[in-house]
Amino acid sequence: MDPKGKVALITGGARIGQVVAAALAARGCSLALTYRGSRDAAEATAASARAAGVRATVLSADATVETEVIAAVAETVKSLGRLDILINMASIYQQTPNPDGARWSAIQDSNAKSGFLYSIHSAPIMKHSGAGRIVNFSDWLPATGRPHYKDYVPYYVSKASVAALTEALALQLAPEILVNTIAPGPILAPPNLTVEENALVIEATPLRRWGGAEEIARTVLFLIETDFITGECIRVDGGRHLF
Fold this sequence. Notes:
By secondary structure, this protein is α/β, with parallel strands linked by helices.
């Protein structure tokens, strides 16, 4: 699918999402950007997209609440005229040494349920137009099949659920809609990372560096433009899974 002239709905568009949005806008793709708490980031991304010559709209929506998801999808079509691409980036990355039921549910809802809700409510629109792309986000650890780090039980399971959701949706929505997952590894260093912790990450990554948000944007574009890959999970981790 050529993104030019298409419309992409992006959830969780801060940081990496802003770079993904800019890459799509540069290729002539209009954008609907949803946010729950980072309105300023969404507005800045939309302004940049408009400066690039494409339409953009900003929508307040909690990705875990079905009525708000339905409203965001409907408003995207109303404002921009169509919906061709869904990029599910809304996520919580949280350490939980002693998780309880409430934390479990909150992380599962944000990381897995949100993608499910946006997908099932976007799919009929894409099916009606004859084509669509859905790109989800998992994590390099569940994609590799081992948790590796303690105290991330709800997060790890939620991201494994995303990979399973992708496979199930790819089968369910074929042939019109292609559904794939990106599993990032060391892409952007957390702001509170110590020098020692950074050195450990670099040492454990065969390519010896953080990837940068541009690597995710390139992978998103690849999964939009391909016509024969679906149900796949692509690790973007600089070879981190090899250790």
